[in-house]
Amino acid sequence: MTVAQRQIIMCQSFRVSGEKKGICHRHTEGFLQYVEEEVLDRGLDCLVCASTCLKQCEHGPVMVIQPENWWFGRVDSEDVIDAILDGVEDGEPPSEYLLAN
């Protein structure tokens, strides 16, 4: 079994009841597909996942890169996603979007 080197987790505001609330899902329409396509185009060994609420609504939309444990906020455009993926390639997170690591 092959396991990806990294996980890219995109908050989609899912709740236990299955409904979506919060900011992340409203501001990320089409982002999962964009991230997946960029990962493939760049040849990155990453699994792209949608998640339940990551409890960071005040910083949303939120993206997490594991195992680095890089938490990014305000991921609200393709330009921000590109900067984050550039950081994954370079091994250095873009500090302007970084919440924690």
Q: Would you mind describing this structure in some detail?
A:
There is one protein chain. This protein is α+β, with helices and mostly antiparallel strands and 101 residues long. It has one domain: Glutaredoxin, CATH 3.40.30.10. It has 2 helices and 5 strands, in the order βαβββαβ. It has helices spanning 31-42, 78-90; strands at residues 6-14, 46-52, 63-66, 70-72, 98-100. Strands 2-1-3-4-5 form a 5-stranded mixed β-sheet, with helices on one face. β1, α1 and β2 form a beta-alpha-beta unit. α1 packs parallel to α2. The radius of gyration is 13 Å and the shape is globular.
CATH C-level name:
Alpha Beta
Derived structural class: alpha+beta
Percent in helix: 10-25%
The tally of structural domains comes to 1
Number of strands: 5
The multimeric state of the shown protein is single chain
Give the second-level CATH assignment, the architecture: 3-Layer(aba) Sandwich
- Count the DSSP helices: 2
The CATH topology comes to: Glutaredoxin
Main sheet properties: 5 strands, mixed
Taken in chain order, the helices and strands follow as: EHEEEHE
> Termini distance?
29 Å
Taking strands numbered 1, 2, ... along the chain, how are they ordered across the largest sheet? 2-1-3-4-5
